[in-house]
Specification:
Blueprint lengths: L4 H26 L1 E5 L5 E5 L3 H4 L1 H85 L19 H22 L3 H4 L30 H7 L8 E2 L9 E8 L3 H17 L3 E9 L7 H15 L4 E5 L3 E3 L13 E2 L3 E2 L15 E5 H6 L13 H11 L5 E3 L5 E4 L4 H4 L6 H6 L15 E8 L4 E7 L6
Parallel strand pairs: 4-5, 4-6, 5-14, 9-12
Antiparallel strand pairs: 1-2, 2-11, 3-5, 6-10, 7-12, 8-10, 13-14
Length: 467
């Protein structure tokens, strides 16, 4: 039976509609919109979905993520144990090779000594001849030891002439040094007369090699970053910065981590042509660690110090591996540490908002900062995510190709006690926003000191039974 033309049209329309429904479902599952902001800074923002915005979903994602991390830690420990057994065998081989090498070097030493003795004899002979010549000049003062020269040769210079010549040489050297160094007038050039820094920093290098086990000397870091002023303040000398960022680090007993952080991050931040200052907020005493309140305190104290446009809330144990991940002030709250080596460079779960985040001052004050209720490890970053989403904002994340970080491994997270109330607190997170955060942070600044590369603010946190 022949199909009527009208039925063909309806069938084609039905097939087209089904294809559109299938395509839209694929896009919804992906839940990401790729955007480009220039300067090679490709970022995507997670589209808010009903599932991500629910009160229970974040708790479930957190539980699953913690379980995955525990499994990954167990697998990593097994690999380390296998590696340690293999390293014992390798070490024996290396030691044997080293002994053979040292024997060869000992056999070569006599020839080297003979060469040195020959050179020493030649040097002694030359010195004796020179001494003999000087003695002969003293005995015959009327005769010159220098070879005969044409009659046009100038007479020997007097002592005053020699002094003048020496002075002129010094003056010439001083002029040469002044030409190499910027003049005081150039160094003190008004900021208003400088051009705006380019949106795409020209000296970025891309992917970097990071050795988190490196032994760092702070004196060498200071020499490598001479334009960083006391307190850890930096502003580009040749252009007006477009972004003014306070780097806030929650801290306690992590000196080696801080050294590594400064060694790698200072050159990166300088190349990005932002104005910044590093604030290390240290928790005094032996109270249970409270990361969220320390970040609130750091932001509050930094805001008193300078009119910062945004705050980079930064764990000290995360080191950037690609300087194209810009620490600029974002249009939306930005999650920086998307791909961490500890988690195989992948995002653990959709609502993850920890490690390193950047918010403008307006955004951070709008959500009342972090909750102050998370004493112990875990939960405060998920609470922050819920504050952001409940205020109608969407999370921005850089592309995983540039948002790569290495974590300094130690026993910090394994020895820190997890907050047993973190899941109950997460369920009531939205209801506590107005009364729990920047507005309720209770603390006392016990010391504030500007070091050469950072400002340390030591605080005693209050309102806790264990403090």
């Amino acid at each position: 039976m022949m199909m009527m033309p009208s039925m063909k049209v309806w069938l084609a329309a039905l097939l087209l509609f089904g294809g559109m429904v299938l395509l839209s479902s694929i896009v919804y599952i992906d839940r990401r919109t790729i955007i480009s902001t220039g300067a090679g800074d490709f970022r995507y923002t997670s589209v808010q979905t009903p599932a991500e915005n629910s009160q229970t979903d974040v708790v479930t994602e957190r539980r699953n993520a913690e379980e995955n991390v525990r499994k990954m830690a167990g697998d990593s420990q097994k690999q380390q144990e296998k590696g340690s057994n293999n390293s014992i065998v390798k070490q024996d081989v290396v030691q044997t090779q080293g002994q053979e090498t040292s024997k060869i070097e000992v056999k070569q030493d006599p020839k080297a000594n003979e060469t040195k003795q020959t050179e020493q004899k030649a040097s002694d002979t030359e010195q004796k001849e020179q001494t003999a010549g000087e003695t002969k000049e003293k005995e015959e003062p009327g005769k010159s030891s220098s070879p005969q020269k044409p009659e046009q040769e100038k007479p020997a210079s007097s002592a005053s002439d020699v002094a003048k010549e020496a002075g002129s040489v010094k003056d010439t050297a001083a002029v040469a040094l002044q030409e190499k160094k910027p003049t005081p007038a150039a160094a003190a050039k008004p900021v208003a007369s400088l051009p705006l820094c380019p949106q795409q920093p020209p000296k970025l290098v891309g992917r970097l090699f990071v050795d988190v086990k490196k032994e760092v000397n702070l004196d060498e870091v200071m020499k490598s970053n001479p334009d960083v002023k006391p307190g850890g303040f930096y502003s580009p000398p040749d252009c007006q910065p477009r972004d003014k960022v306070a780097i806030v680090i929650p801290y306690r007993d992590r000196e080696q981590h801080l050294r590594v952080f400064l060694h790698y991050m200072l050159p990166i931040l300088r190349r990005q042509l932002i104005q910044f200052k590093i604030y290390v907020t240290e928790q005094a005493g032996n109270c249970v660690f409270n990361r969220g309140m320390l970040l609130n305190v750091g932001a509050l104290e930094a805001a008193k110090d300078h009119n910062w446009q945004c705050f980079a809330l930064h764990d000290v144990d995360l080191i950037l591996e690609d300087d194209r991940n810009l620490y600029t002030c974002p249009e939306r709250p930005k999650h920086m540490s998307v791909a961490v080596d500890k988690f195989n460079y992948r995002l653990l779960y959709a609502s993850l908002f920890g490690g390193i985040t950047i918010l403008t001052k307006e955004q951070f004050w709008k959500i009342n900062g972090y909750s102050n209720e998370y004493w112990g490890w875990g939960g405060e970053d998920d609470d922050l995510y819920k504050r952001v989403v409940s205020n109608g904002m969407k999370i921005m994340r850089p592309d995983t190709n540039v948002a790569r970080y290495k974590m300094i491994r130690d026993t910090h997270h394994t020895t820190s006690k997890a907050n047993p109330a973190r899941f109950d607190l997460l369920r009531s997170a939205v209801s506590r926003i107005k009364k729990d955060g920047l507005s309720s942070a209770s603390y006392e600044v016990t010391n504030k000191e500007e070091h050469s590369l950072y400002t340390k603010i030591t605080v005693a946190l209050k309102d806790h039974v264990k403090c």
